[in-house]
Description:
- 32% of the residues lie in helices and 28% in strands.
- By secondary structure, the protein is an alpha/beta fold.
- The protein has a single domain, classed as P-loop containing nucleotide triphosphate hydrolases (Rossmann fold, 3-Layer(aba) Sandwich).
- The strands form 2 sheets. The chain has a 6-stranded mixed sheet. Strands 2-1-4-5 form a 4-stranded antiparallel sheet, with helices on one face.
- The two termini are 21 Å apart.
- 40% of the residues are buried.
Amino acid sequence: MAETLIGIEDVSKSYYRDSLEIPVLRNISLTIPTGEFIALMGPSGSGKTTLLNLIAGIDRPTAGRVVVGGTDIGTLDESALAAWRSHHVGFIFQFYNLLPVLTAFENVELPLLLTHLKKKEKKEHVEAALKLVGLGDRMQHYPKQLSGGQEQRVAIARAIVTDPTLLVADEPTGDLDKVSATEIMDLLGRLNQEFKKTIVMVTHDPRAAEKAHKVMHLDKGELTT
């Protein structure tokens, strides 16, 4: 049995609008082993992205605990949480979130600017990440010179360049055509299989979910599987 990487213990999350409480997640408990590839599915508004954000330390639970790699991330202050995220989490978004004024190389290098690596080491890390996603020949291209699938590959290279413990992906194929979506899912599958990356992915796409080891469904803030 693989060791547990993520432990979600009786987690609830509510947002507040004036005095109105809006519950989004209710009493979620979930264990994700190291090396797992989980797909979270469910209708819009079911709490998928909220749960992903809690796992990634972007948001905090209203109740319960989120423990990742032995760290109860809800107990960290904002600066410690930011440092934890930069070391342990790689983010992949639906719309890539690349900076248009930077080249592919410079976009991928961004997370390394917070590290103490020497310039030569940063260059080596960036080149390795871009080659891994099949863009070794596109390093000096700007986002507008790339296809959507290539932009998402750059975003994945940026997510893995720090060798994070965990990859979180929010609708990574949502803005892509069918061919590009298949290529991106093949790449995520490879990162999971060959490089043993733990991946938690939100998706509406059943074809994308097929790449995951396990599909979990959320409905109205509750896990139904």
